[in-house]
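Quick one: co-fold with adenosine-5'-triphosphate.
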Amino acid sequence: MITLENVNKVYQTKSGNVTAVNNVNLKIEKGEIFGIIGYSGAGKSSLIRLLNGLEKPTSGNISVAGSQIDSIGGVKLRKARLEISMIFQHFNLLWSRTVRENIAFPLEIAGVKRAKRLKRVDELIKLVGLEGREDAYPSQLSGGQKQRVGIARALANNPKVLLCDEATSALDPQTTDSILDLLVDINKRLGLTIVLITHEMHVIRKICHRVAVMENGQVVEEGNVLDVFKHPNQPITKRFVKQVTEPEETNEVVANLLENYPKGKVIQLTFVGESAEQPLITNLIRKFAIDVNILQGKISQTQSGSYGSLFIHLDGDEQELNRALEFIYNQHIEVEVIANA
Ligand SMILES: Nc1ncnc2c1ncn2[C@@H]1O[C@H](COP(=O)(O)OP(=O)(O)OP(=O)(O)O)[C@@H](O)[C@H]1O
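Sure, here it is.
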């Protein structure tokens, strides 16, 4: 559905050339939810502007929904862009128009007749769950409702690709989750290909099938979300994964624990997929003469399975501790001994 080959984007500025996108190669399949994550300045916005033809690459080929976006212009580009819609962090709604009128806007531009337009707007309002709010103005809506209008408007002309530019970054965590659920629902119901850019790993974790990590204009790591969580290779990817798997207070808890329990081992267990359901702790207590303290843990759901991280403290006779560790290693659960007292 989307292919990028050796794509570069260089901006010429007064203080010299800035390479915003550096030799990016990506292939995004039809019906996929693909996430691009990176910190500020990584080149995400530049990349997304290249995908919808708002900007041309300095070099390289970009194909989206069957159109060679990098080399077409004029009517051809306008037609191609009907297939590529976008939602934004700050919604970009028309403030003097009601919900219904905002959603109707792209249909008016596309020349859709009034009766058909009204019918389509009603369908879209139902699809995004805004029934009863049709005549409200954007200023009368919550952030989540505004983004629902943005999504309905983006879907009006039945696009094949939806680009999401930090679409939940201005929303609180609960509203973020409801908008992400809506995107998954739309992806499943309409088979829409979704590309989203974000700096939040939670967003990737919750809805994406695959992810690309960007740093200094380059894609430094790419893969299935669960695999990237399981084996992050690059330091930047490890930092992003920790956003989700390791609560901020972990270091503090571990330091505190070592003070309170000067003996034993502190261990981080990483569960992926089915192993997250294994009754490991029960087995440890039953099989070995050791004390097991659960420090903290978190199991997160991704689109392709569960992913969890559990910090435990084991104490007991040295030999028994080593036998217990051996047992854990044999369960195909990833183990890291983070502190040996
Ligand atoms: N129009 C432009 N002219 C000159 N430089 C630009 C332009 N747009 C982006 N850049 C530069 O390109 C680099 C990548 O910026 P970009 O906005 O694509 O990153 P980003 O990952 O989207 O970050 P943010 O989330 O902060 O927007 C930055 O160094 C930025 O200053």
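If it helps, The two ends are 53 Å apart (CA to CA).
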